[in-house]
Amino acid sequence: MMISCVIALIYYSILSISTESWQLIAAQLLQATYVAIVMGNGLSYFTDLLPDSPGLSTTIYYNGSIIGRLVGNMGGGIIAQYVGFRHAYLACLAIVIVSLFILWRTKPHVKSGGAVGHGTV
Q1: Alpha-carbon distance 63 to 82, whole Å?
Q2: How many Å apart are CA 51 and CA 82, to the nearest integer?
Q3: Side-chain half-sphere exposure of 15, counting CA atoms within 13 A
Q4: H or E element, residue 14
Q5: 34: buried, middle or exposed (CB in 10 Å: 19+, 13-18, 0-12)?
Q6: Side-chain half-sphere of 83: how many Cα atoms within 13 Å?
Q7: pLDDT in the model for residue 108
Q8: Which of 34, 25, 29, 41 is nearest to 93 (CA)?
Q9: Alpha helix segments (H runs only) across 18-84
Q10: What is the DSSP letter of 51?
């Protein structure tokens, strides 16, 4: 999931500074990769965060996804209408930076045990 945020960071950076249409078309490969990772692993990430509550994690993921699409499309349109589309890309870039920070803070930490096979019997 962290790598998808880095890809999204690169994608929205390109969109916010691009001057030619071919640059936007080429950047769609990054967007497709980002969406594929998030849509493929998003539910697994929430299930890992709440392993004892699979129903709750599924509900949070799907409701958050629906609300995010609704608010994102509407908010992006409002920003683009009143201040320009480049500012909408900059707003998305800011959201990705916040998301990267949240993912970094909530990532599951691997506990290191002892050496495998050297326990007591």
Answers
A1: 28
A2: 43
A3: 22
A4: helix 2-17
A5: buried
A6: 10
A7: 63
A8: 34
A9: 21-49, 54-83
A10: T
Question: Cβ distance 96 to 5 under 8 Å?
Answer: yes
- Mean pLDDT, consecutive 10-residue stretches, the chain (121 aa), reads 86 90 91 86 83 88 90 89 87 89 75 50 45
Residues belonging to the chain = 121
In angstroms, rounded to a whole number, what is the distance separating the alpha carbons of residues 87 and 79?
7
Write out the two tokens for 97: 């930076």
Please tell me the distance from the alpha carbon of residue 62 to that of residue 55, in angstroms, as a whole number.
Answer: 11
What one-character DSSP code corresponds to residue 110? P
Residue with tokens 């920070």: 101
Q: Pull the structure tokens for residue 40.
A: 């493929």
pTM of the model: 0.71
